Amino acid sequence: MNPKVIKTITYSKISLDFYDNNAIMFKLDNKAIDWFYSLAKTKKQTIDTRSAKRTSIQVKKDRNKALIDVFYKQKDLKLIQHFEIEKNKNYFTIQLIIQSDKTIESNYLVPLDFIYPLNICNELFLSLEEKILLVPYDNDMWIKYEATYLRPGRTSYDVTAIFDDKNNNGLIIGALDFDTWKNAIKCSAYDARAFYALSGIADENTHDHLEHGYLKAKQIKSSRFICGFYNDVRLGLQEYSKLCVNPNGIYKWKHGVPFGWNSYSALTLETKIENVRSAADFIYQLDNFKTKNNHTYINFDAVINIKEKDIKKLIDDLHARNQKVGWYMNPLSHLSIQDKIPLLGSKNKTRKDILLKNIDGTNYPKIDDKYPIDITIPEAEKDFRLYLRWFVDMGFDYIKLDFLSHGALEGKYHNKNIKTGRQALMYFYNIVKEELDPRKINKEIFISSSIDPLFPNGYSHSRRSSCDAFGHIEDVRYVLNSLTYSYWTNNTLYQFNDPDHTVLYHSLVDQRSTTSLAEARSRYNASVISGTVMLLSDDYGPNNTSISKNAKTRALKLANNKQLNELARLNIAFTPITLTNTSNVFYTKNYFAVFNYEDKDIVIEIDPKDIKFKKQGTLLNLNNNKTLKYKDKIKIKLNKHDSYIFKCQ
């Protein structure tokens, strides 16, 4: 026998049905979606709305919003489900609050615990074919986004979509607060069709060796989560991303998409000053490969053994002809070979003295072969601040911050007010924000985060959407996996989705053969449609080798395309045509791109309505300047590993 509804609260499009078993049904436009409980754990007990006594429901409504508080009691603990519902929205927000007259400690709150679905729920949640979008916590170790079947233990970090991949109908659940908790949506261990949203995740995918840090107070709040149902979850993810725009983040970048060159893939750690100067000279000759202000960025990346005076001379020379220069830092991670590097501003202290500790005082284990640093140690903070000031005084214009996930681990921080990894990462971000404030340094620095958690957002202008990517077709597919499932982060969470340095001929880092012309075209096109940051990374001399000759020829052929670069400067991340797997068709207004990941020639057929085009028209191929007429169906023949970008004329 199904439980009975004892109370319904409706505001605008959203209704909440309260059942006699304490479950709550989310309804949209009077149609049932799914039902849930809530629970929280302290060090001493668990309070669960399945068993706790519901004591009251309080409702406040005005013309734009409804506030609903549902109160529960169990022994000496109180629990509150705090709901907010806005007018004409497809979602509600919920925050879970636990209270006691005495101080409590908690590291685990579950605002939304969706239970085994019955026939009173939306049929999507009764299906064994529903999919879950798995959003990675960060972009380290070549992790990918996935859209896959629900299965016990599968976890998406901070946000997910539960959807029908045949029509994209589905549920969006996502956290809205990232300054304290690591959040996740996790499939239940008890049923593949049950799942829950929690604050307090710490596992192998967050790189944690310890449980999530405990908060200690008489009142403890979870992160806020939105929960909404959409006819197309792509629209839901876009709406979610707008809610996550951070008004307290860094300043807005006004100078457009960066264009330029990055040293890492081209030359690895052994980059020499003459290599950088030669690359700068070559990039300067590419008339169409520039920012909207006619700048190009020439970026040092993880270089060693270059003299400071030579770097300063290069900066001054490049500034004289309107080029900019970038630098690399990994302030939150430590390699053993750096043990004896002295800390700036601290006598007799080296980098090995600022490592993060376990609870027992031992060093935290390596993550991705690097030890995490505790930025809350005064000497560590002082060293980083002085390093940033050196960076500014040298005249750099661009900073790449790498391996920031190391600063968000659950550990024993020197600053006793830091209880969680996310609080520690926020401590770091606030240093960056303060030291690189244009009002303080009288210039604007482009801030790029590389290996980095997706959240908290808004403390860098760009974030790399994937791990390292080079120039082969699998790199293209990898970059476009990230675009398929995170295109919605561009111009919302971050101003620019970064598709990583664009290799068009040969990478020293990936240790593979040279890139074919078709692969290179696809790699360049993938960067153009990603959001974007346009940094080439090939060896352009000064040694006149076959690699440097061919790299220049390739760049002149592909990277100096005026129409493609004008499109890249629009700062638009194209939308995927499908969420079933890594899409091979992406579109935006008046443009679409097609990719062939296969080792054979293919024909791609597109229904114009699926990319919001008219039934018939004429297309301009931006890669070869040829036109193509279509009617009812768009058919594109692609050679092995190739791609094209089209504009509707």
Give a structural overview.
Helix 5 packs parallel to helix 6 (421-435) and helix 8 packs parallel to helix 9 (517-528). This protein starts with a strand and ends with a strand. The longest helix has 17 residues, at 378-394. It is of the alpha+beta class. A hairpin with a 2-residue loop joins strand 1 and strand 2. It folds into three domains: 5-243, Beta-galactosidase, Chain A, domain 5, CATH 2.70.98.10; 259-561, Alpha-Beta Barrel (TIM Barrel); 585-648, no CATH class. The chain is built from eleven helices and 37 strands. The strands form six sheets. Strands 6, 7, 8, 9, 11, 12, 14, 15, 18 and 19 form a ten-stranded antiparallel beta sheet that branches. Helices cover 19% and strands 31% of the residues.
What is the name of the CATH class of the largest domain?
Alpha Beta
Helix content: 10-25%
What is the fold named in CATH at topology level of the largest domain? TIM Barrel
The major sheet is characterized as:
10 strands, antiparallel
The chain-level mean pLDDT equals: 97
Number of strands: 37
Please give the CATH architecture of the largest domain.
Answer: Alpha-Beta Barrel
